[in-house]
Every structure is written in C-alpha cells, then in structure tokens.
Design goal:
The chain has 1 helix and 7 strands; from the N terminus they run H-E-E-E-E-E-E-E. It is mainly beta.
C-alpha cells in the first residue's frame, strides 16, 4: 500500500504549472483615399485602463508591406488603443477590446494632408 501511494505521489505533480495566457491578433489593411495600399507606416499599441483613462505603451513598430497589410500579435483579452501614423496622412486611432478571438480592423482609408 505504501508503494502504491509513493508511486501516485511521484507521478502526480505537486504544483500545477501555470497555463500560459492565450494571445490573439488584430489585423487590417491601410489604403489611401484612392484605395492604393500604403506601404510604410508606424503602429503603437497601448494597454488602456478604462477606469483611470491611463494608457501604457506595449508595442511600437514600423510596417513595410507592399499590400498595406499589418498584424498585431500577442494581445491578451483586454482593451487597447491602437494608433497608426503615416507621414503626410491623417492619423488613425481606435479603441479595440480584444475578446477570446482574433479581430480584424478591415480596410482603413487615410486621407492625405497635402
């Protein structure tokens, strides 16, 4: 009987390993008002605390894509402020709540400022 208990104890982990948080992505496509892809732009992603209105930057990167497509990865289910900037175009900002699935921002049309 002691042997059986010892075997059970040795084969059962004493502490359960914490499960990694599942992450999700947001994707979209950036075009100008003529629906041509914008090939180079910057994205900043802020974690947004809706109770205190404070934001904390969690991602800041540049995109170079011939089709104007972007992918923001490794997002946990929370509320984010996403800012997209392109030289000579209007800035795009959106507050997006990520649930338990990947999300699309669709096609985003920016107006040039010149």
């Amino acid at each position: 009987m002691k042997r059986i208990l010892l075997m059970i104890l040795l084969t059962t982990p004493l502490f359960a390993a914490p499960s990694p948080k599942e992450t999700f992505s947001i994707w979209g496509r950036l075009v100008d008002n003529g629906f041509s892809p914008i090939e180079s732009f910057s994205i900043k992603v802020f974690q947004l605390n809706t109770f205190t209105n404070q934001k904390k930057i969690i991602q800041d990167f540049k995109v170079a894509d011939n089709n104007g497509e972007f992918l923001i990865k490794n997002l946990t289910p929370e509320t984010y402020l996403i800012e997209i900037t392109v030289e000579s175009y209007t800035r795009y900002s959106i507050i997006k709540t990520v649930g338990n699935k990947n999300e699309s921002l669709g096609e985003i049309v920016l107006q040039n400022t010149w």
